[in-house]
From TrEMBL:
Chief location of this protein within or outside the cell: membrane
Keywords: Cell outer membrane, Membrane, Receptor, Signal, TonB box, Transmembrane, Transmembrane beta strand, Transport
Source taxonomy: Bacteria, Pseudomonadati, Bacteroidota, Flavobacteriia, Flavobacteriales
Pfam families found in the cross-reference section: CarbopepD_reg_2 (PF13715), Plug (PF07715), TonB_dep_Rec_b-barrel (PF00593)
Residue ranges occupied by any TonB-dependent receptor-like beta-barrel domain in the UniProt entry: 331-776
Xref: Gene3D superfamilies: TonB-dependent receptor, beta-barrel domain, TonB-dependent receptor, plug domain
Name of the molecule in the record: TonB-dependent receptor domain-containing protein
Topology with respect to the bilayer: Multi-pass membrane protein
Length: 803
């Protein structure tokens, strides 16, 4: 580690010496507005001399960096209007432009149209099946990142309860750790649970990238079916915004975002803070919500209020960076501090109710990033990040009383409290376990361009996780045997990118090598005798694949990809998690899959004020040793993970987007996958009774519809009213294998959820008021193993943009 740091710092010093001989780079920033002061969104700003471009954001601001100190012609082209040609001189310093346009004027476009490819278009042209969620329209709504993802084609959020509860992502039928989550390319697990997709407000996010089937090499993780990358905002302007929301179940959510940018030095300081609290005391009812009369044993089904499910999280993230320097395109240092406290209401199912069990977590993390094109050699680029986090995770369970859904302590005929199995705690033996978890990660990537159409990339990823456990409630002899859990992972990937046929055909070939090591000592206790067992396991696999795209026209792109994917068992799957009743499973095997994707991107097609685009993707997943959650024990309410033989899944995602006059937006998507258990015989030659069944506890047909309409200058000039509506559909699915019962099969019912809201914007976007109503019809919503989610809820939010 010291050697790497010394090498890194020395390299920066050499680059700095080289930088003294290089010309200082300039930036071109500015704002495009109409003459009444309202911003022009998505105007193209283009510098023909070096083909650099940018689009104006929701405030009309833009930034083009990395320009040499000279005079430039600049072309500004708002959508539906003719080009504006300007000249700016960057010889002495960076420039800031202010462009005011006539309001709502229609011009005939000239014969020459300047086009610039977005990063998303570039990713699609490499053959990746990628979908992007733009968060700009949601910054004033009372939603979190996980809700936005749940509205995307092929993505289903599996949430165990309300705000702050555990979430899993189902992506084209693959769930849990099979789908990797990143924040700015850093694995989400490094951030700690308090800084999660349940808490990150859209105001902190620039966009969300969803990769289906094949994960690009620059993310370098073991993912079976893709990944989700959250890109946080990196603005080059001064900004300060504050937001506060309040709603049902005594829910409070607040965030502050500040950014300070010095164009002369390129120094940027960014800080974001968030706070969330909720009682989560929503009403629950159904087959799993009942009380038992201890005298008669009679079961009575009730409607009850969750009484022990409060959740509180808070965090602050700071980032100090230098951009567009001769020695670095970006050099940044980031810090994160977060804390979380939550009561635990249920175990793995709703049959068991807790009244005192709770958990606490705090995380401290730092990360260092460095990016540079033309490093030492022309056409050689480098990217690296280092992150280190430490999380203290506590479980408090020292009161053994049994509770029912009415929040009452269950008592016997004499009025004495009934204890849970006389074990000292509600979920087992009394515990005050403190898990000290340390996570180190490094990803380094090098890219070399042989020409404008050929590039070779190499990426190296190393991740080391350790967990030390201390539980003062355990006898000293047992506590001493709880040694450090050690898990490390190394991934090396190579990819070759090329373009052919006048750059209409793109290809990417890649190879990945995976290593994992697990080492620990655990103990078993039989008849009061302790036996220590050492586990030391190493695994190694190779993966490979290819991705292709062909541009039939500028608006029609065909994509395809195939990969032999490997996903090694994760931390909680192998080592367990006491706060969530997860048992360790040391003998898990890696899961592997052959993934095939074939898709098409159509659009944008423009007709006067109308815009239309669509994406469709067909996929196949042939999976072996799929890692899935096991069924919870009826006695302990604990569960582990298991390998599931063979699963074959086929399906399709379809999404369509329509826009009229930048006022009305309509997005609709539909996802269907057919995942079947595909192993016919067990090791003894007997046929599995559920051979050919759909995958248990997995939704297979989902859809979403989102509509938004903006009234401009409704009451006064520069005032705006925005109405939005969202409909989510999940078809019913079985909780267990279909073939295990002839009648009375348990299933999760069909769910149709309606939500709507309104936002009112005052002049200059200084103040925005928002109101959201979720699950308007108060649908009975379930998810993992019939864990009920909140019913009807209302939320109010105020956002103040000071700068």
């Amino acid at each position: 580690m010291r050697f790497l740091l010394v090498l890194f710092i020395t390299g920066l010093g050499l680059l700095d010496l080289q930088a003294q001989e290089l010309t200082n780079l300039r930036s071109l920033t500015g704002q495009v507005v109409f003459k009444d002061g309202s911003p022009v969104v998505s105007a193209l700003i283009y510098v023909p001399a070096n083909a650099k471009s940018a689009y104006s954001d929701e405030q009309g601001y833009f930034n083009i960096s990395g320009l040499a100190a000279q005079e430039y012609e600049v072309i500004i082209q708002p959508f539906g209007q003719k080009e504006i040609h300007l000249t700016t001189d960057l010889s002495e310093h960076s420039d800031n432009l202010y462009i005011a346009l006539q309001q709502e004027t229609n011009f005939a476009l000239e014969d020459v149209v300047i086009k610039s490819k977005s990063k998303i278009r570039e990713s699609k042209e490499k053959g990746y099946n990628i979908e992007v969620v733009n968060t700009q329209a949601y910054t004033v709504q009372n939603v979190v990142a996980s809700e936005l993802l749940d509205r995307s084609a092929g993505v289903k959020i599996r949430q165990s309860a309300g705000l702050g509860s555990h979430i899993d992502f189902n992506l084209n039928g693959l769930t849990g750790n099979s789908v990797r989550i990143f924040i700015d390319g850093i694995p989400l697990r490094n951030y700690g649970k308090a800084f999660s997709l349940n808490n990150i407000p859209p105001s902190m996010i620039e966009r969300i990238e969803i990769y289906k089937g094949v994960l690009p090499g620059h993310l370098t993780e073991d993912a079976l079916g893709g990944g989700i990358n959250i890109i946080l905002k990196k603005e080059k302007k001064n900004k300060l915004s504050v937001a506060y929301g309040y709603g049902s179940f005594n829910t409070h959510q607040a965030d502050v975002n500040a950014n300070l940018f010095d164009s002369k030095t390129g120094l940027n300081a960014q800080i974001g803070a968030f706070y969330a609290y909720t009682d989560n005391n929503y009403e629950v009812y159904g087959d799993n919500v009942y009380v038992i009369n201890p005298q008669t044993g009679k079961v009575k089904y009730v409607k009850a209020e969750r009484f022990h499910d409060s959740y509180e999280s808070k965090g602050i993230q700071a980032n100090l960076s230098l951009r567009d320097k001769s020695f670095a395109d970006e050099l940044s240092l980031g810090l994160l501090f977060s804390d979380m406290d939550n009561d635990i209401q249920t175990g793995a199912t709703m049959d068991v109710v807790y009244g005192n069990r709770r958990s606490e977590r705090d995380t401290r993390m730092f990360n260092l990033k460095y990016e540079k094109d033309n490093l030492i050699l022309p056409n050689l680029s480098a990217k690296t990040f280092v992150s280190y986090s430490q999380t203290n995770r506590k479980v408090i369970d020292t009161i053994p009383y049994m509770y029912n859904w009415l929040g009452e302590i269950v008592r016997d005929q004499d009025g004495n409290p009934i204890n849970w199995r006389n074990s000292g705690g509600e979920a087992g033996p009394a515990t005050l376990a403190n898990n000290n978890e340390k996570n180190f990660a490094n990803r380094t990537g090098l890219g070399y361009s042989f020409s404008d159409t050929q590039k070779l990339n190499a990426n190296f990823f190393y991740n080391q996780f350790t967990r030390d456990i201390d539980d003062p409630k355990l006898p000293e002899a047992e506590n001493e045997l709880l040694d450090t859990r050690f898990l490390s992972k190394t991934i090396l990937s190579f990819s070759y990118e090329a373009k052919w046929l006048q750059e209409k055909l793109s290809s990417t070939l890649f190879f990945k090598n995976y290593h994992q090591k697990v080492k620990l000592t655990d103990y078993t206790k039989r008849q009061d005798k302790l036996t220590a067992t050492a586990y030391d396991k190493k695994i190694s696999f190779n993966g490979y694949g290819a991705a292709f795209s062909y541009a039939l026209t500028d608006e029609i792109l065909i994509t395809s990809s195939v990969e032999k994917a490997i996903r090694m068992p994760g931390i909680f799957e192998l080592l367990g998690n006491t706060s969530e009743n997860i048992l360790p499973t040391y003998n898990l095997r890696p899961e592997n899959s052959t993934n095939v994707n074939l898709g098409a991107s159509l659009g944008n097609f423009s007709f006067n004020k109308h815009q239309l685009k669509a994406d469709i993707n067909f996929f196949l997943r042939d999976i072996s040793d799929m890692i899935v959650r096991g069924i919870a024990s009826n006695i302990t309410d604990q569960y582990g993970f298991e390998n599931l033989g063979k699963v074959r899944s086929t399906g399709v995602d379809l999404e369509m987007n329509y826009n009229y006059d930048k006022r009305f937006t309509l997005t609709a998507n539909l996802s269907n996958f057919n995942a079947r258990y595909n192993l016919k015989f067990d090791e003894y030659g007997s046929e599995y009774i559920y051979y050919g069944d759909r995958l248990r506890n997995a939704p297979f047909l989902t859809g979403n519809l989102y509509a938004n309409y903006e009234f401009k200058n409704l009451f006064k000039q520069n005032h705006g009213l925005n109405l939005h509506y969202n409909f989510g559909y999940t078809h019913r699915f079985f909780r267990n294998w279909e073939s295990l019962a002839s009648k009375g099969k348990a299933y999760i019912p069909t769910q149709a959820v309606h939500s709507a809201g309104v936002n009112y914007r005052f002049p200059g976007n200084k103040v925005v008021l928002g109101f959201d109503a979720k699950n308007i019809t108060n649908e009975h919503l379930f998810d993992n193993w019939a864990l009920q989610k909140p019913g009807r809820a209302f939320y109010f939010k105020i956002t103040y943009n000071a700068i």
